[in-house]
Design brief:
Number of strands: 0
Distance between the termini: 183 Å
Helix content: over 70%
Structural class: mainly alpha
Number of helices: 12
Radius of gyration: 58 Å
Length: about 575
């Protein structure tokens, strides 16, 4: 081959290489433009759907949070006010049942006293239900505080009135008193007319009625004493319930305040951590922008250098290859930087969402703690007013019962005095009758002996008369013994009443002592009548008997005053 041919061949080869280099340059520039467009698109894109490992547990660890997440109130938590509604319905039922009078029935004092408390409770429960519905709280702990109050309110309101409990026994006493008045009038009329057998019969009837009246008064005293005991038990239970409810309310309020303080501390720590993370995120954003600006300048320099290299393709193929490798490394570094940046963005977004949600939970919990504290205070005020009204009602009821019991005991004293005087009068007259019969027995015995001494046939008549008088004296002694047994039984029934009156500070003289004075005065009067009937000439024995009775009266009074007890009264009855 000739030199020309070779030159042409080399020239053609070089021309082919130049044409090939030009084509490859254009194709590579197009590929580079596409790569830069993808890079800019990737850098401008956001919200990559990557999953983050950051959650509430990681937040609690990083921020050193102390309140457990299960304790916090979440947005999806539903308030529970069923128990509050049940208690409100119970208050409404109590008001309708006990504080709403019928058309033909006046409002009772108990209803007038407890009605404001029940209405106040209903209004407070309405407010509590609204407060709880606006929160995520469970009302069960607060409801348990007022359970005891509502139970005792129901118990106190369901108690029967004192007048209703005593109506039967009072009606019975009124009937007995009317019968006693009628019998006393009949007895007085018989005494005035001198019909002693009728007077004696009416005296026995009066004693029976007196015993019946005493038993009725004892029954009334028993009922009132039982009511006083029940009232004291209710007051003791009220004190226990009140202390328990106040302590439970205080504990619940302290728990709410403690949880609120813990949440506020955790929220402050969370905000501190969030502030630190926000600062770090701002620094990373600034660093990323600076790195991106430097990378853009470097890419521009590489593009310029590649243009020069393409002008010297034949001389700088190796340089183009190295630059291409360097460009590839830079692009790869940019992509890795973008991956790190997007990962950081995803983690920051996850942290922001979790921290914001946690902060909302803390805010919600703090609001709920305030609501719980406010509701607890409302319930505490209702408990205080409710237990105060119960204590006031029970105190008034106990005062009424104590006064009624004292009145009943005083009535029992009067009934016992009347019965004792009636039986004592009957005993006195029977004793006088026994003395009279004894004198008749002695006279009949003397006549019998005198007739027997002279063999007078009338001795048989005086003997029969003496036997009849002896039988009559035995009957009278049995009647006197029965009267004394009835006096003793009535005195034993009266002893608790006398002890209660003395304990209550009621000054009175024991009816048995009054009876003894009455007996001695009656005997003294009879002695004076004897003195008047016998005349002045033979009045020495009568005066002696009168002096003996007066000394016995003074001695009895001294004994009663010195002993001052019930044992001496029982001895006087036996004598």
């Amino acid at each position: 081959m000739c030199i020309r041919d070779r030159h042409c061949s080399v020239d053609n080869t070089i021309q082919g290489m130049l044409e090939y280099a030009s084509e490859r340059r254009q194709a590579q520039e197009q590929l580079l433009d596409d790569a830069m467009e993808l890079l800019h698109t990737a850098e401008k894109s956001s919200e990559w759907n990557w999953k983050s490992k950051f959650d509430a547990d990681a937040l609690a660890t990083d921020a050193e949070l102390e309140v457990p997440r299960t304790t916090l109130k979440l947005a999806e938590d539903i308030p529970n006010t069923v128990d509050l509604q049940h208690q409100q319905q119970l208050l409404v039922r109590l008001k309708q049942q006990y504080c709403t009078p019928n058309a033909n029935q006046a409002e009772s004092p108990v209803a007038a006293e407890f009605k404001p408390t029940l209405e106040n409770g209903i209004r407070r429960f309405d407010r509590l239900i609204k407060e709880f519905n606006a929160s995520q709280l469970d009302a069960s702990p607060l409801v348990r505080i007022s359970d005891d109050l509502l139970v005792q309110l129901d118990h106190v309101l369901s108690q029967q009135f004192i007048e209703d409990l005593l109506r039967d026994v009072n009606d019975r006493i009124a009937v007995i008193v009317e019968r006693q008045k009628e019998c006393q009038a009949a007895k007085d009329e018989a005494h005035e007319e001198g019909i002693m057998d009728v007077a004696e019969l009416e005296t026995y009837r009066l004693a029976d009625i007196g015993e019946e009246l005493a038993n009725a008064n004892i029954e009334r005293v028993r009922i009132l004493a039982k009511l006083v005991d029940e009232c004291q038990v209710s007051m003791k239970v009220r004190e226990e319930y009140s202390a328990k409810a106040q302590q439970a309310a205080a504990d619940l309020e302290k728990d709410s305040e403690r949880l609120k303080a813990d949440c506020e501390r955790d929220l402050a720590r969370l905000y501190t951590l969030k502030k630190q993370v926000d600062g770090a995120e701002a620094e990373m954003l600034e660093r990323t922008e600076n790195d991106r600006s430097a990378s853009d300048k470097k890419l521009e320099d590489i593009h310029a250098r590649k243009s020069d290299a393409w002008d010297q393709v034949a001389m700088l193929l190796m340089q183009i290859k190295e630059l291409e490798a360097e460009r590839h490394r830079e692009i790869k570094g940019r992509m890795e930087s973008k991956v790190r940046d997007e990962t950081r963005r995803t983690e920051y977004a996850a942290f922001t969402n979790v921290s914001d949600a946690q902060a909302r939970n803390y805010d919600r919990t703090i609001r709920n703690c305030d609501t719980q504290t406010h509701c607890t205070k409302l319930m505490g005020e209702f408990l205080h007013s409710g237990f105060f009204v119960i204590d006031k009602g029970l105190t008034q009821r106990k005062t009424v019962l104590d006064q009624a019991l004292l009145d009943a005991q005083n009535v029992h004293l009067e009934v016992f005095r009347t019965l004792l005087f009636t039986l004592g009068d009957l005993e006195y007259r029977k004793d006088r009758r026994i003395e009279e019969v004894g004198e008749n027995i002695q006279a009949a015995h003397i006549q019998q002996e005198m007739c027997s001494d002279s063999l007078n046939p009338n001795a048989k008549k005086f003997s029969d008369a003496k036997k009849e008088f002896l039988r009559l004296r035995d009957d009278l002694q049995l009647e006197v013994q029965d009267i004394r047994d009835r006096q003793r039984a009535a005195s034993e029934q009266y002893e608790p009443t006398d002890l209660a009156l003395r304990t209550a500070g009621s000054s009175h003289q024991h009816p048995i002592e009054e009876l003894e004075d009455r007996r001695l005065n009656q005997r003294a009067k009879m002695v004076e009548y004897k003195e008047m009937a016998m005349g002045k000439g033979s009045s020495a024995p009568v005066r002696k008997e009168l002096e003996t009775l007066q000394s016995a009266l003074q001695q009895s009074r001294r004994v009663i005053a010195s002993r001052g007890g019930n044992s001496s009264s029982m001895q006087l009855i036996g004598n």
